[in-house]
């Protein structure tokens, strides 16, 4: 799949097959083909305009945002993250600690998630009271959380929000955060 032109990708570092090999050796599996194709086609990913992707489930942050996608050295550096589930790698980064992860193992292999590194899921009523102007979708998330109405998620995924079932689907869901 050719990558969408609306990404307006600005390469950061050239594609380096040795870093891919380092990542795969560290995680014990090969990277999904869709991600590898993207990295090769874009010469290693890079910076993008502010982009958003709607998650498939309610979130405490609205849409997921990114400004960088596919930084291989960054992926390698974050493999030992305390926040990222062990079956995932970080593939994109956005504002305010927003991170996008790709599952590389397990029943959700290939799925793309927004990882909320701020762990908003656990915010208390006191914390929420400090943000009186939250978007309606965010207020609804916390209402659902407090009412036990959120969709059930596997243990360890409390701060992961499904965006897409595949990397290619993820790319098609990305859209500019503002109009030119």
Describe this structure in words.
This is Knr4/Smi1-like domain-containing protein. Residues 16-143 form the Knr4/Smi1-like domain. This protein has helices spanning 17-27, 33-41, 72-77, 125-129, 136-146, 167-173; strands at residues 10-11, 46-53, 64-69, 88-93, 98-103, 112-116, 160-164, 175-176. The chain is an alpha+beta fold. It has one domain: SMI1/KNR4-like. Strands 1, 2, 3, 4, 5, 6, 7 and 8 form an 8-stranded antiparallel sheet that branches. The relative contact order is 0.20.
Oligomer state equals single chain
Q: Name the helicity range.
A: 25-40%
CATH structural architecture: 3-Layer(aba) Sandwich
CATH fold category name: SMI1/KNR4-like
Radius of gyration (CA) equals: 16 Å
Strand content: 15-25%
Query: Structural class, judged by helices and strands?
Result: alpha+beta
The CATH superfamily is identified as: SMI1/KNR4-like
Number of domains: 1
| Tally of DSSP helical segments | 6
The overall pLDDT average reads 89
- Largest sheet, if any? 8 strands, antiparallel
Total DSSP E strands: 8
> What's the N-to-C terminus distance?
26 Å
C-alpha geometry: globular
CATH class: Alpha Beta
Enumerate the spans where pLDDT stays under 50 for 5 or more consecutive residues.
Answer: none
Quick summary of this structure?
By secondary structure, the chain is of the alpha+beta class.
Question: Could you outline the blueprint of secondary structure elements for this entry?
Answer:
Layout: E1 10-11, H1 17-27, H2 33-41, E2 46-53, E3 64-69, H3 72-77, E4 88-93, E5 98-103, E6 112-116, H4 125-129, H5 136-146, E7 160-164, H6 167-173, E8 175-176
Antiparallel strand pairs: 1-2, 2-3, 2-8, 3-4, 4-5, 5-6, 6-7
